[in-house]
Design goal:
Layout (H helix, E strand, L loop, with lengths): L12 H11 L6 H6 L3 H9 L10 H14 L3 H11 L7 H9 L9 H16 L4 H10 L2 H23 L15
Helix pairs in contact: 4-5, 4-6, 4-7, 4-9, 7-8, 7-9
Length: 180
């Protein structure tokens, strides 16, 4: 059980509509059900406006999210994203594994993806990018994408804090962290 009880159906009409919009008809995640129980928290979370696709490709977006969640030890959100999006993002089994156990320099990544993962790692470790890391991103990504990368790292770090801090149980059908 999470530390804060999730909403149970039947949901209020407005909450049910919000869940349907986000989940596209699938049952709402425990994370969403817990947060929706507090109106201010739910509104602030949804106001983050990073639940849309944004300027990154699905593959780029998922690499950022998966790596951020892996670095924060958030198996809950990592598993949800890997299960839901890895195939559509054309992430191989090796690449999925490496988001948890590998390095930015692993050969399974393109040069652009290596710069992306290096940026995620730097933001996780130091909450900043040095000149070389920023130059590496700039070589492959336009400004709108760089903003999105940084915002996604922060947003999914917050999601990881929520999932980890509230001790959310892993979603039943979600992927699990690979073993070393």
């Amino acid at each position: 059980m999470p530390r804060i009880a999730p909403l149970e159906p039947p949901y209020a009409t407005d909450i049910a509509e919000q869940f349907d919009r986000i989940m596209r008809g699938a049952p709402p995640l425990v994370l969403f059900r817990v947060m929706a129980g507090n109106a201010r928290t739910w509104e602030k979370f949804r106001a983050g406006s990073l639940l849309d696709r944004g300027p990154l490709s699905l593959r780029e977006r998922e690499i950022v999210i998966d790596r951020t969640c892996a670095r924060t030890g958030c198996e809950y959100e990592w598993g949800v994203h890997v299960t839901t999006f890895a195939e559509a993002a054309h992430l191989t089994e090796e690449q999925v594994r490496v988001t948890v156990l590998g390095a930015a320099t692993d050969a399974c990544w393109s040069a652009a993806e290596q710069a992306l993962i290096a940026a995620v790692d730097a933001l996780h470790e130091r909450a900043t990018l040095d000149d070389a890391e920023f130059a590496g991103l700039s070589e492959h990504y336009e400004e709108a994408k760089i903003f999105e990368i940084i915002l996604l790292c922060g947003f999914y770090r917050t999601v990881s804090y929520l999932a980890n801090g509230l001790a959310l149980p892993l979603e039943e059908n979600a992927a699990r962290f690979p073993r070393a």
